[in-house]
Amino acid sequence: MFQFPMKFKVKSTSAAGTQSAWTTKAQSFDYHVPMAIPPEFEGPGNGLSPEDIYAMALQNCFIATFKVFAEKSKLQYETVSIESVLEVDIDENKRPWMARIHLHVTLTGSDQKEKAQRILEKTAQSCMILNSVKTEKTFKFDVL
Fold this sequence. Notes:
With 144 residues, this protein is of the alpha+beta class. It is built from three helices and six strands, in the order E-E-E-H-E-E-H-H-E.
C-alpha cells in the first residue's frame, strides 16, 4: 500500500536575465533538463518551458494512471499515446493562466475496445494531477 504523504523534490538553478537558460532536475533522476523562457514570452527558447512541463505533467499523469488501471484490469494493448494542446489565456482579472488543455489519447492494439474505452474514461476522472488543477480539460479517445 502507498504511504502518504509523499514528497517529490526538484531543484532548479538559473543565472540572471530572461535570455539565459537554466536547468531543473528531479531528485529521482540524474539528468538536468534544459529550461528556457519560450519565444511566445520573448525568451530564447531552445529548452523546455514551464508551460511545456505543465502540459507534460498532465498528459504523463494520464499515461501512468492508465497503465496502472489497464494492468489491474488485465487490458491488453500495444501502445497508448497522447498529443496535447495547452492554451494560455488571460483570466477575468487580466492574469495569465493555463486556461485549457485538450488531450487526444490514442490506444492501439487492444481487441477489448469497450473495456479500453471505459478504462480511458475512468483514467480521465482519476488522474491526481489532472484533478489538482483548475485548467479546463477536454479529451478525445481513439481506440484503434
